[in-house]
Design goal:
The chain is mostly helical. It is built from 13 helices and no strands. The chain has helices at about 5-25, 25-30, 35-50, 55-70, 80-85, 95-110, 115-130, 140-150, 155-160, 160-175, 185-195, 205-210, 220-240.
Length: about 240
């Protein structure tokens, strides 16, 4: 954030707040303005690492964090982002920002659909079945791959099977301490798939990190139940 003075950082945060409440209003309301300011500062730091020092590209970077998760730049689901951000042939940050925008728009068109309806439908499906997951037997990775494709087929086909396998592999890492718990792998796979591969440390979803931090004081069953309950509370707020 060296390119921004303290007053400019505060103004940048205010602009991010306005953008968040316009772009993802239900999500922004659930996260809260103070947490969104934290996301803005984190995004400013990360954008600067990629050479986005102008206000426009930096704010656009944070917009993508809101849409795809705070770690979208390293998420295997979004290779177009890493390609645009690290394109050494394009030294001009505006050119790279335009390429990043083109990749994001193409992905949103294919995966989210008009007004995000494809993703809203997927979130509604998750919300309807979240209670049933408590009684489901542990699933293997092959079964979870099928579940994700059925959950959000448009997104699944937009990211491709290799990225889908990377989603499940990341979920398996998160679920490993809770592998014996019903639906643990599918729970984490759904979170990684829909909220991003950095969901366990994403300041937009602090309830995930808070639940995981209770280990080893809490039992695996208690941790999974807390994650599931917090996920249900989030869905109840953002999905009509």
């Amino acid at each position: 954030m060296q390119a921004f003075e303290a007053a400019a950082v505060r103004q940048f945060e205010n602009e991010v707040l306005a953008s968040a409440h316009r772009l993802v209003p239900a999500h922004a309301a659930f996260v809260g303005d103070e947490r969104l300011r934290e996301v803005a500062r984190l995004g400013l730091q990360r954008a600067e690492r990629y050479g986005f020092t102008n206000r426009g590209p930096a704010r656009f970077y944070v917009d993508l964090m809101l849409l795809f998760g705070s770690d979208f730049d390293t998420d295997p689901q979004f290779p177009w982002a890493a390609q645009a951000l690290t394109d050494t042939a394009a030294s001009d940050q505006m050119v790279r920002a335009e390429r990043l925008w083109a990749g994001a728009q193409d992905f949103l068109d294919r995966a989210d659909g008009p007004n995000g309806e494809f993703t809203l439908d997927a979130l509604r499906r998750v919300r309807r079945r979240i209670d049933k997951a408590r009684n489901e037997p542990p699933a293997d990775q092959a079964g979870v791959l099928i579940e994700l494709e059925q959950l959000h087929p448009h997104r699944w086909h937009a990211i491709g099977e290799p990225a889908g396998r990377a989603v499940v592999a990341r979920a398996a890492e998160l679920a490993q301490p809770y592998a014996s718990e019903a639906g643990a792998l599918l729970l984490f796979a759904t979170l990684v798939f829909l909220l991003g591969h950095g969901v366990a440390g994403d300041p937009q979803f602090p309830w995930v990190a808070a639940a995981l931090a209770k280990e080893p004081r809490a039992t695996p069953a208690e941790v999974i139940e807390e994650v599931r309950s917090a996920w249900a509370a989030y869905l109840a707020h953002v999905v009509l």
